[in-house]
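FORM 7B - TANDEM STRUCTURE REPORT

SECTION 1: FIRST PROTEIN
SEQUENCE AND TOKENS:
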Amino acid sequence: MTHDFSGWIGRSITRDDIATPRLIAEYRATMAPFIFEPSDPSHCAPGLHWGLAPATPGYDGCAPDGSEARGTFLPPIPLPRRMWAGGSIETLQPIRAGQAVQRVSTITDIKSRDGKTGPLFLLSVRHDFIADSSLLVRERQDLVFRDAGSRLVLPAEQGALTKGDWTVQASPLLLFRFSAFTFNGHRIHYDAPYAEEEGYPGLVVHGPMQAAMMLNLASVKLGHVPRRFDYRCVAPLIAGPAFGVNFDEATSSVRVIRHDGVTTAEGQVHAPGT
């Protein structure tokens, strides 16, 4: 590939928001009962940051797939397909109800390579959530941009779903609510005909929703929100059948498991100092 987007590294944008009662209620209603309830009622559940200060482009600021158009903050990468690859979440302090929060987003890395389906761009964005001059949450988001690929085919029959600590019904309502909570316009999550255009057999469950499920389950099992949580998405999760979320106490790791037994996302809790 001849495109060089290295000049976009370091580009930053700041947005402001408030952890309002309505936003907190929307997150709880979307995730419950698969959510960690902090002992201090003023502390927000882990993962609320995904709904704070999102990009809010107008209709003319959206790409054909419904996501934020490239060329303003994100570089004008010409490949049409956008996927959430994974990330890392550091929770230094809890976000509190009613707190005014700034989200400072910075492009930290852009790489190109050739993948199985053709050329790829891998882009990392750091989001710092700051209140009263203190860093609360630092998140790294890893995005992949690729060309159109072949159609994904999943087994039609119900496989032997590994029994999860949580079993979640991947309903269209769940996906719609998470899209609304995060102001995510990506059409693969709510527009079934468009999702088929991208080669999926149905609506696609959000990467950050799977991360939120894993982070909340880890918090429930540990009794606290982990200081650092890394995760990656390894296979598509399609709406419809239930999926499992499992925590392994021996390794402090978490997995999301599709109805056919395939792991779609995996996360790792890191001990302090690692």
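SECTION 2: SECOND PROTEIN
SEQUENCE AND TOKENS:
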Amino acid sequence: MTDNASLEGVRGVLFLCVANSARSQMAEGLARQILGPGYQILSAGSSPTRVNPWAIQAMAEIDIDITGQASSHVEDVIADEVDLVITLCAEEVCPVFLDKTTRLHWPLQDPDRKNETLTDAQRLEHFRTARDEIARRIRAL
């Protein structure tokens, strides 16, 4: 599966990317707000770091506080809690979650763009773009 799925029968959703610092963290915060308390929402990565300050700022602009979230390793996720895995990597190799769950792949470029020389305003705009696209896809579920 690449873009769409139904949430019928889904209790737990896992968002995956490499560092679990931006796309998957924003997705976790967005899904909690959009989907509500009836779902277990998780995020993880294969090389977790920390929640990116730009992601925190972009989410704060829409009144979602992700400062309490922390980067997690995909190996620490309990498979029984996950019914749907959504990978968010574009140019990187996405982590693998080995379980018989429904999978979606939403390839989104890393908004941090560490290899590009950007102003703060440009970098924040990339985070806003990623945030808004993730929100659109979650709503489409």
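SECTION 3: OBSERVATIONS ON SECOND PROTEIN
Residues 74 and 131 are 22 Å apart (CA to CA).
The radius of gyration is 14 Å.

SECTION 4: SIGNATURE
Preparer initials: ____
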